Amino acid sequence: MKFHEMEIKQVEKVLETDFSSGLSTEEIKKRIAQHGHNELDEGEKQSALLLFFSQFKDFMVLVLLAATLISGLLGEYIDAIAIIAIVIINGFLGFFQERKAEKSLQALKELTAPQVSVLRDGQWLKIPSKEIVIGDILKFTSGDRIGADVRIIESKSLEIEESALTGESVPVSKSIDALQTANPGIGDMENIGFMGTMITRGSGLGVVIATGMKTAMGQIADLLQNAESQETPLQRRLEQLGKILITVALVLTVLVVVIGVFQGHELYEMFLAGVSLAVAAIPEGLPAIVTVALSLGVQKMIKKNAIVRKIQAVETLGCASVICSDKTGTMTQNKMTVTHLWSSGHTWTVDGVGYQPQGKFYRNEKTVHPKDEKALQQMLIFGMLCNHSDLVMNEEEIILDGDPTEGALLVSAMKAGFDRPALLKEFTVINEFPFDSARKMMSMHVKDKQGRHFIVTKGAPDVILGNCESILWEEKTQYLGQEIQNKVQDAINGLAAKALRTIAIAFKPVPAHTVIISEHEAEKKLTFIGVQGMIDPPRPEVKDAVKECKEAGIKTVMITGDHVITAKAIASQLGILTGKSKVLDGKALSDMSVEDLENVVEDVSVFARVSPEHKLKIVKALQNKGHVVAMTGDGVNDAPAIKAADIGVAMGITGTDVAKEASALVLLDDNFATIKAAIKEGRNIYENIRKFVRYLLASNVGEILVMLFAMILGLPLPLVPIQILWVNLVTDGLPAMALGLDRPEENVMKRKPRSPNEGVFSRGLGWKVVSRGFLIGLVTLLAFMIVYQNDSSRLDYAQTIAFATLVMAQLIHVFDCRSEKSVLSRNPFGNQYLVWAVISSLVLVLVVIYYPPLQPVFHTLPILAKDWLLIMGLSSVPTFLLAGSFLLRKTK
Ligand code: ATP
User: Where is it mostly found (predicted)?
Assistant: First the structure.
């Protein structure tokens, strides 16, 4: 169907839709049934069965299975079956862990899926783009990505960047006219918007003509299937470490086997023990547990309104040393209310609450009627006209639909008794030049009832002032001489010093029937009318968040398009601008190279009157100084800086699709304090990973050493293969996961950020692993020797004692791992998950010791009560010894 050749009325007919009310719910159901969801096919997923079998492709597991098979053939049926059962249970554990990791990554993807505005049953709704059907009417504005292929049916200066399809990065302007060209290429289809392309300017409406794989993007969808790798730096490091650990474990295992054989043990017996030991000691599950810990962390962050789009960010968050944050809406509430107005040398104040359109005007503290004040009146009317916001009455409150800055201007005019529908009867809008943060202005070309044409402009006062050549002073247009300019400037500064955001209003008459095509032409030689100043109160939680960041060694930098003085006032209120820190404005920033900026950037706490383009420079300069930078943003122009930052942060409410896609973190509530919460969580997750790495590796060291020591001393095997495998199974999985869920230590936001280059074993972790592992191995051996020396005829009993001691030493040691300091610095039982994990591990061990049918399988004998004293005494030695040495160091 050649929709580009049709007039829009015909498109409406062919698609059986209605441009004024959209499709009906009934019709949508039918169309979904007919065409399916608006999704692109993704690459083949690994099936569950394949994932399960992939758990056994590990080399050592295969060797173990082979060895077990041999022992089975030699008649050791019970051993063989038990070992295979354990290997299968282990496989299931690995399978579930990987499945969980995969599922949470998938859930995350769904959570960050784009939403679109669609007209259905006469109402505008936000829906996931997956639910779009042919015939739907979509609305899009600058920064959005189009959710499906559409025929444009309304264009307000609409420009779309289609490089995803055409490779051409220059945006194309779009119109609604039917095309005459016979077979236009994608780049020439000026009335079609394509799925996945990005609106760079203006806004528009489109009716959906193709969805899913039928779209132009769908045709090339295979290009999209090479998804980014989601491996984090820590995972990569652990994988490298894993390789080293495998080698070390294998070498030690071989050593155990060789020494054992040398000491007179049978080769076959030693071989099976060695392979079991290698399987137990190689931390093959570590990467999967890390992924699970990271994704559980992601889920915790969602509860705190932070969505991590890239799992790598969880780790990087903990390293953040600077947060560069927008002011408006992130640090402030973005609930603007005009409180002061200035024109013709007079200042008015206006009262009222929020967006309630009731309030009184005062001049020199006396109530005035705004309609008697001509200059004020003109400023209010134009502020209401050059405006897109609207108030919607809800059952309980008045809600603003649109930009809060414009909402404030709308409400100030309403307080004076003006009404927009009536105003729009007086003025017809001919053309519009939308606001952008770089120009800091917006204009409308309007015509009044008498046929007079005007340009009405509003924007940042200093910018507007620079574009004015005259001023409306007490109803008369005057030349804007230096003297008056100074007066205006003083007035602007006066408002800004009260922490008010300022907007100036200006206009110019233009001859009828002139066509003004560029904003540059529209916005010059203006006549200044006045300024409105609006409060935007800081979010109450931000001040504390800034303070907490400071204590955590993280600097907060405010970046804003607002006036320098306004920015300073708010930054001081929030504790961002203190002592020696400096303010830099956009002009100065433009004149600096990245290298120049590097010299001063660490002293600057506020960047004001900046354009989004400046943000990239700031990120680069900070990174060159060795900082790990979090940078927030919402618009299209913010995307490069968000991408370049170590942690790009996009606003969930006001953010555009493009900003969100570029980001690693999305703030659901647009709140600065949420960034802090995410950093805290990021630090905690990393610490938790350290905790279980430490626990697992120390346990493995203990397992290897007890065997090695025994062989060196010429003793029998202190543990039989099945016991080694069982220890590995019951002590590794659950307790390690529980450590991954631990709450942060109190001082987690009281230390400096971690260096991103920090190795896995830094800050003494390597020593902790080796020393704890050594002690665990030692006490296990001691327990074995004491019992065996006492009665060497009962080897089984001594092995059961060693088995119990090894398990107990690990399960006591796990509480030690909750703190980087010592077991005494935190309530050991403060982590409920850990307590339950340890109890279940204990039960699993006691079952194989005391449940008679399992005793022959695990070569165990019931342990006598008096021997538990020995086991408990010895297995708590490592933890007490280390707690003691900690106390000693502390008292020194
Ligand atoms: P940030 O969110 O980065 O703190 P900001 O929201 O204050 O910055 P911009 O939205 O770029 O920055 O606004 C810059 C200036 O442009 C404002 O100080 C204001 O004077 C002016 N301005 C803001 N919104 C509008 C608008 N809708 N129309 C005209 N001018 C505007």
Answer: membrane
pLDDT digits (tens, 9 = 90+) for 205-250: 999 999 988 888 877 755 444 434 456 677 777 777 777 877 888 8
Among 58, 136, 149, 326, the active-site one is: 326
462 tagged catalytic: no
Give the class (CATH, top level) of 691-891.
mainly alpha
How is residue 575 written in tokens?
Answer: 């504790």
The Å distance, Cα 334 to ligand 1 centre, comes to 11
Cβ–ligand 1 distance for 161 under 6 Å, the answer no
Atom of ligand 1 nearest to the CA of 634: 2
Q: Whose CA is nearest to atom 18 of ligand 1?
A: 562
**How many whole angstroms from 642 Cα to the centroid of ligand 1?**
19
Number of the ligand 1 atom closest to the C-alpha atom of 437:
11
| Higher pLDDT among residues 386 and 76, named by residue | 386
Residue nearest to ligand 1 atom 2, measured at CA: 328
Please tell me the distance between residue 69's alpha carbon and the centre of ligand 1 in angstroms: 73
Condensed to tens digits (0 to 9), the pLDDT of residues 499-529 reads 899 999 999 999 987 888 788 989 999 999 9
What is the pLDDT at residue 59? 65
Among residues of the chain, what percentage have pLDDT more than 90?
37
Q: Which numeric CATH code is attached to 3-42+108-226?
A: 2.70.150.10
CA distance 409 to 444: 15
How much distance in Å is there from the Cα of 562 to the middle of ligand 1? 6
What's the Rg (C-alpha) of the chain?
35
Q: What is the third-level CATH fold of 337-535?
A: Calcium-transporting ATPase, cytoplasmic domain N (3.40.1110)
Q: What is the dihedral of CA 705, 709, 715, 716, to 10 degrees?
A: 20
Helix (H) or strand (E) holding 721: helix 721-740
pLDDT of 630 over the 70 cut: yes
**What's the whole-model pTM score?**
0.79
For 306-332+540-670, CATH gives 3.40.50.1000
